[in-house]
Amino acid sequence: LVAQPGESWQQRWLASGAASNGRVDWRSFPIRWRKATTAWDCRFDATVLGTGLLSLICADVIRPDLPWLLSTATPKRLAIEMARTRDPAGFADLAAHSEANPVGESTTRVAIHRVAALIAAKGGVVADITVGDALELLGVAADVCEVPHYKSPYFYQLLHALGVFGDAVAPTVRALDGQRQLSVEQLIDRCDIQCQPVRDLLVDYLRERQIRIDHVSLVRLADTLGRLFWRDLEIHHPGIDSLRLTAPVAGAWKQRIATKTTRSKAADGSPIEVSRPRHSATNALSAVRAFYLDIAQAATDDPARWGPWAVPCPIKAGEVAHRKEAARRKSRMDQRTRERLPVLPTLTAAVHTQRTATADRLAAAKATRPGEVFTAGGQRLRRVLTTRAHGANIWAQDPAGGRRRNLALEEHRAFWAWAAVEVLRHSGIRVEELTELTHSSLVQYRLPTTGELVPLLHIVPSKTDAERLLVINPELADVLSAIVTRVRGDTAAIPLVAAYDYHERVFNPPRPILFQRHIGTENRPVNAPAIRKLLDAALTATGLRGTDGQPLRFVPHDFRRLFI
Q1: What is d(CA 163, CA 150) in angstroms, rounded to the nearest whole number?
Q2: Per-residue CA distances from 181 to 35, 218, 262, 504, 520 (Å)
Q3: Which of 47, 140, 282, 310 is 20 to 30 A distant from 525 in Cα terms?
Q4: Sheet holding 373-376, edge to edge
Q5: Is residue 523 classed as helix, strand or coil in its secondary structure?
Q6: If you write DSSP's letter for every residue of 3-65 in order, what string do you get?
Q7: Three-state DSSP state, 382
Q8: Phi and psi for 412 in degrees, rounded to 5?
Q9: What contacts 474, CB < 8 A, 6 or more positions away?
Q10: Is residue 35 pLDDT above 50, yes or no?
């Protein structure tokens, strides 16, 4: 439509006859018209617009905004028509990448629709989408979409795998989040401190300590000083504005810090509050005592800034019972070791059996046509027919009925639970060191006397900031070989993965990490929380119980104590 001089687009639209038969109602539904650099607002009837509106969108005559595209039920065939008329090659490439890296059918369908919505709102083709466009859509989806599945960032992964964003852009949306490391101001402001001078003092103190500790330690210190110490004093003593505490005030706070209250709900929904001793009470007392002593020391160097806050410390050296607390902690850890050492062979045998059984079931299911019954891993199952012919997930269920099972996911969990248990018990490394093992961690040393090659495992600096070299025994060598073979797959090299550092709250540069898995179009590391969940699931399957009758639980550090 070409508007005549002095004629608006609305007038041209009405005069063209396209709005005949009552198909257009300017009062019922908003949508934005766009022509060159001038925009007009028009209103359409959402109940009668169908193929006509879809054709206008695909022809780039009108560009609806993202909230309408993500919240309305029309147009339903947007992705199909965009693929047919606007950019057949771009959508064909998206379909090829999704087939090569299959996920759930509904996830793929939502991702393709999100790409279609972006080019409908922004114009152009698939190759013209920018990172900013994708992030804008995710923000809009978070506001207007109620179904969590509709907020999936999988479309971003597809576009990145297609090369739309370029190689320099992060492969995942998680790596673009710049707010993972909070500033000291944000950490203190979360405590809702009312006294502004004390708030500024805590900010300055944390800024001084920030350069000597990692970010997680900084977060814990801010929580201790801001919430457990000063905010607690403000709640129980409104209007307090000085670090000089009287003996009754300090004594009452020490009693409160010694216990903590946990809140939960009973079976009938009624609230339950349980008070129990706080195991970190000694650490909190030590942090507050160090806070007072550091200010007193700093006051000698900068009296103008720190002098007004230098007051006697309310916590005496004898009240911080490090020796007693260390003895209690060692007693608890020794008891854990005594309980877990006898059942370690049972756990290792269970994870090995589960790994073998799940692999056999998955292999048998792959060799079985959908609908047929097969027996493997001690179970009789029927493979379930799915809508995706080439999906990575293989589904099966009991012939008598019941819930469907994802055999590929079961095999994945069983393998990595076995790998984690074997590497931890044969090396005694920490879980952070486990997740940071890379292909380059496997090194060799040739003995100068005999020329024999000794395989070594290089451990990067972690808690102690000291690197180590461990001799790889034959059992550990077999496990590492199985991990490398699995991760490498059909490729010549291990994929590079950008792992998340939980201590510094940043993403590390891409590295050939050994503990990684393929999800969608990307490779992700098997992080520490995932390993803890795998261990919990493996122990639940064994049915092992402790001396108290409760289900026994292994944490990764238990294997380090057992190794020692």
Answers
A1: 23
A2: 43, 10, 28, 7, 27
A3: 140
A4: 373-376, 379-383, 395-397, 405-406
A5: strand
A6: PPTT--HHHHHHHTTTTGGGT--TTT-EEEEEETTEEEEEE--TTT-SHHHHHHHHTTSB---
A7: strand
A8: -60, -50
A9: none
A10: no
Q: Which amino acid is at 138?
A: L
User: What gap in Å lies between CA 289 and CA 297, rounded to an integer?
Assistant: 12
Exposure class string for 37-70: b at 16+ Cβ within 10 A, else e: eeeeebebebeebeeebbebbbeeebbbebebbb
At residue 418, the 3 state secondary structure works out as: helix
In sequence order, which residues have a C-beta less than 8 Å from that of residue 314 and are 6 or more positions away? Answer: 245, 247, 250, 288, 292
If pLDDT is split at 50, 70 and 90, which confidence band does 384 have? confident
DSSP code at position 176: G
The tens digit of pLDDT for each residue in 400-423 reads 888 889 999 999 999 999 999 999
- Helix count (H) and strand count (E) of the chain? 22, 15
Tell me how far apart the alpha carbons of residues 371 and 388 are, in angstroms, rounded to a whole number.
14
DSSP 3-state of 269? coil
- In this structure, which amino acid lies at residue 414? A
Residue closest to 113 by CA, chosen among 158, 52, 148? 158
d(CA 370, CA 368) in angstroms, rounded, equals 7
Q: Is the CA virtual torsion 186, 189, 195, 201 positive or negative?
A: negative
260 φ, ψ to 5°?
-135, 150
Tokens of 31: 């949508």
Residue count of the chain: 564
End-to-end CA distance of the chain: 80
SS3 of 314-377: the string is CCCHHHCCHHHHHHHHHHHHHHHHHHHCCCHHHHHHHHHHHHHHHHHHHHHHHCCCCCCEEEEC
Contacts 24+ apart (CB under 8 A), 483-488: 483/419, 483/423, 483/514, 483/515, 484/439, 484/442, 484/514, 486/415, 487/514, 487/516
How many whole angstroms separate alpha carbon 247 and alpha carbon 316? 12
> In one letter, which amino acid is 236?
H
> Percentage of the chain with pLDDT > 90?
41
- Give the pair of three-digit tokens for residue 223: 């929580």
Q: How many Cα atoms occupy the beta-carbon half-sphere of 18 within 13 Å?
A: 15
Give the model's confidence band at 345: pLDDT under 50 very low, under 70 low, under 90 confident, else very high.
very high
CA–CA separation, 341 and 328 (whole Å): 20
| Alpha-carbon gap, residue 49 to 36, rounded angstroms | 24
CB 414 within 8 A of CB 358: yes
> Which pair of tokens denotes residue 487?
């991760």
Q: What is the mean pLDDT of residues 517-522?
A: 78
Q: In whole angstroms, what is the distance from residue 419 CA to residue 515 CA?
A: 9
Minimal CA–CA distance to 245: which of 161, 333, 313?
313
**How confident is the model over 235-244, as a mean pLDDT?**
93
Residue-wise pLDDT tens digits, 178-207:
557 888 999 999 999 999 999 999 999 999
Angle at 298 between CA 296 and CA 303, to 5 degrees: 90
Rounded distance between C-alpha atoms, residue 45 and residue 27, angstroms? 8
